[in-house]
């Protein structure tokens, strides 16, 4: 079984990325053929500073490696190093109905937030479909915000198969209910583009500051509170030990939960949890040549897997004459 997912190098990776995508992907390492890539061409829809994109790409790659992705037990590369994906994206664009893209929430949300849309942002789901279909992936672990993009991918694959004959595997999205949407410090979805993230690799002081700034209400300590609607608890519950989560939940419901105490505890837990990876990341960033060589190896393997599919597609659509 092929499991595939990508991450944009458009800013420092955060707890939402970690819980919904990086952690589940890494856990797949021994159970399937794992494809992980840094989607730098998707990030171009929002990043126009070349130096920043290049740096972000190496940094996102180092984050994944530091968190335990083993390049010997996975295929790990940078999207643009297999340029056939752009060729496939154009081919798929030509059979993608406008209405399918016009309905995409992610596009509409970004426009509503004041991001000025370029054509890349609109066509984004087609490039994502190409990412998934080129490697004939079966399963795509993502957060809830990407669910519709997986449905678009499926629709495009079904349409291509019906026009040109059986070509693509129809992929399944995998979205864990537990971590479908991790809130940011302001209570909206945690996202690099909303400036509300808790980054995985902050220094100790910044991490504490960030956690202390998670927005909470002003209900006094001894009064009951609803853990389900509390941002802080919704982040805390993923990281604290199970027994402690139950205990804090009870304090929320019965009264006695102090936001300040929970925040301090969360900052401590996060600092300890990422201690090893943080050291590993420093080591990796000191040797960018090593990261580049891992990515080059991965791109070679990814391209070998992509080649039979793109050749089949070229033959079917009639550009081989
Ligand atoms: P961002 O929205 O911060 O730019 P990406 O678009 O690069 O993040 O997302 C990478 C992966 O992380 C995707 O699978 C996405 O669904 C997941 N993800 C991002 N933010 C969250 C969140 N707040 N909660 C759950 N999953 C998330
Ligand atoms: N659109 C995804 C996101 O923003 C990233 C992405 C690009 C992706 N191509 C992909 C995810 C292919 C899974 C599979 O999170």
Number of strands: 5
Rough outline: globular
Multimeric state:
single chain
Number of structural units classed as domains? 2
Specify the structural class: mainly alpha
CATH topology of the largest domain: Rossmann fold
Q: How are the strands ordered across the major sheet?
A: 1-2-3
The largest β sheet comes out as: 3 strands, parallel
Report the span from N to C terminus: 34 Å
Radius of gyration: 21 Å
What's the name of the CATH homologous superfamily of the largest domain?
HUPs
Strand content: 5-15%
CATH architectural arrangement of the largest domain: 3-Layer(aba) Sandwich
Q: Unreliable runs, pLDDT <50, ≥5 residues?
A: none
Bound molecules: adenosine-5'-diphosphate, tryptophan
Total number of helical segments? 14
- Helix content range of the residues, please? 40-55%
CATH class category of the largest domain: Alpha Beta
Order of helices and strands: EHEHHEHHHHEHEHHHHHH
Mean pLDDT across every amino acid position: 96
Question: What does this entry look like structurally?
Answer:
This protein is mainly alpha-helical and 321 residues long. It folds into 2 domains: 2-182 and 287-317, 3-Layer(aba) Sandwich (Rossmann fold); 202-273, Tyrosyl-Transfer RNA Synthetase (Orthogonal Bundle). The protein is globular and about 75 Å long. It has a 3-stranded parallel beta sheet with strand order 1-2-3. It has a two-stranded parallel ribbon with strand order 4-5. It has helices at 15-27, 40-43, 50-66, 84-93, 98-102, 105-112, 119-134, 147-164, 204-212, 231-236, 242-254, 259-273, 275-285, 288-317, and strands at residues 2-7, 33-38, 75-78, 139-141, 172-174. The mean pLDDT is 96. The chain has 14 helices and 5 strands. Adenosine-5'-diphosphate binds at residues 7-8, 10, 16-17, 20-21, 142-143, 145-146, 179, 181-182, 189-193. Residues 4-6, 8, 39, 42, 128, 131-132, 140, 142, 146, 149 line the site of tryptophan.
């Amino acid at each position: 079984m092929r499991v595939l997912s990508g991450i944009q190098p458009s800013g420092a990776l955060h707890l939402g990325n970690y819980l919904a995508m990086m952690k589940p992907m890494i856990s797949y390492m021994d159970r399937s053929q794992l494809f992980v890539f840094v989607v730098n061409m998707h990030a171009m829809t929002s990043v126009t500073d070349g130096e920043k994109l290049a740096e972000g790409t190496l940094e996102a790659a180092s984050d994944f490696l530091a968190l335990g992705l083993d390049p010997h037990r996975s295929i790990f590369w940078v999207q643009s190093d297999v340029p056939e994906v752009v060729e496939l994206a154009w081919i798929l664009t030509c059979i993608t109905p406008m209405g399918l893209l016009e309905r995409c929430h992610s596009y509409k949300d970004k426009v509503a937030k004041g991001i000025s849309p370029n054509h890349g942002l609109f066509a984004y789901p087609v490039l994502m479909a190409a990412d998934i279909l080129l490697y004939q992936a079966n399963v795509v672990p993502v957060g809830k915000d990407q669910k519709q993009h997986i449905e678009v991918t499926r629709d495009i694959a079904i349409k291509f198969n019906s026009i040109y004959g059986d070509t693509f595997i129809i992929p399944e999205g995998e979205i864990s209910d537990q971590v479908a949407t991790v809130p940011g410090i302001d209570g909206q979805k945690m996202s690099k583009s909303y400036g509300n993230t808790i980054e995985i690799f902050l220094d100790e002081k910044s991490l504490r500051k960030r956690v202390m700034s998670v927005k909470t209400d002003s209900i006094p300590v001894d009064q009951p509170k609803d853990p389900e609607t509390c941002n802080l608890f919704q982040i805390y519950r993923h990281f604290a030990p199970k027994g402690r989560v139950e205990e804090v939940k009870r304090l929320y419901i019965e009264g006695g939960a102090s936001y300040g105490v929970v925040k301090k505890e969360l900052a401590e837990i996060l600092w300890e949890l990422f201690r090893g990876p943080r050291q590993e990341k420093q080591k990796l960033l000191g040797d960018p040549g090593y990261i580049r060589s891992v990515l080059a190896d991965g791109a070679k393997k990814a391209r070998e897997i992509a080649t039979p599919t793109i050749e089949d597609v070229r033959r079917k659509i009639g550009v081989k004459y």
